[in-house]
Amino acid sequence: SPQQHNVTSYGATTVAIITLGAFPGMWINAFIVSVLCITWVKKKTLNSIEKILLLLGCSRFWYLCFSWIYFFLSKIYPYCLMVHPILQLLQGAYNFFYSSNFWFSACLCVFYCIKIANFRNSFFIYLKVKIDRMVPWLLLGSAIFSLIIGTLVYNIIDKAICRNFNFTCQGRLWKATIRIEEHFYSIHFLTGFVYTTSFMAVIFSAVFLLYSLWRHKSNMQTNSMKNLSMDAHTRAMKSLLSFFIMYSINFISFILTLIYSMKYQNYVMLLVYLIQQAFPGVHSLILIFSNPKLEKALLKTLSCVKCKVCMR
Length: 312
What we know:
The protein is mainly alpha-helical. Helix content is 84%, strand content 1%.
C-alpha cells in the first residue's frame, strides 16, 4: 500500500542519514583511541588529558555503534526489537555511552579550567595542585553515574514492555507495539539531567577561564612567560568554546526530540538524528586539531593514505 511504501521509504532515509553521520564519527574516535593506546604502550603511562580523551573517544565510538544498531533495527527489522531483551539492552547501552560521552566531556572542560586558569583563591590553588590525582576519580565517578543511568533506562523500558506486551511461549516474541508514552518522559528526564549537569560544568568552566583570561590580559606585560600563559589561555578557550557551541546545538536537537519524537515520519527528526550522530565525530575532529600529538598523527596517516592512492 502507499502508506506502507512511505513508512519503508522514511525508514530507509533515516538509516541512510544515521549512517552518514555515524560512520565518519566512528572512524575519527577509533583513530583517537588507537593513537592514545599506542602512546600508552610506548610510554607505559598517559597524562591526564590523554586519559580523558581515551575514555571520551571510547564512549563516543560505542555510543555511535549502539545508536546505529538501534536505528537500523528499528527502521529496517523492527521485529528484532520484540525479542526479549534486545530492546532493553540496546537502550541501556545507548544511554550508558550517551551519558558517559557528556560527563567525560565535562571532565575535560573542568580539567582545562583548573589547570590553566589563574586565581589566588586557596581552594582553587589546592585543586590545581591535586587535579591530576583527581582525574581518575572524576572519570570513575562519571562511569558509575553513567552506569546508573543506563541501568535505570533498562528497568524503565523493561517494566513498560512487561505492561504492554503479551509473551507467547510458542513464538518467543513480544506481540504488541510499545506504548512509548508510558516511559518517554522518564527516559527524557534522565537524558535532560545528564545534559544539564554536564552543560553547567562546561558553562562554569568557560566563564571562569574567560575571567582568568581577561585578568591575565589586563595585567600582562611583554615577557615570554606571560605570552606562553596567554597562548595556553587562548587555546583552552577555543576548546571550551567548541564544547559550548556543540552542547548548544545538541540542546536544540534535544528540545526538538521532545517536541517531534511522538510524531512518526516527521522529517524534522531526520535533521535531529543527523545532528546527534554528527556531534561526536565533528567535536572529536576539533579535539584532534587542538591537540598537537593527535593532529600530527592524523596528518601523517592522511599523507600515507594519499601516497598509497597516488601509487595506484
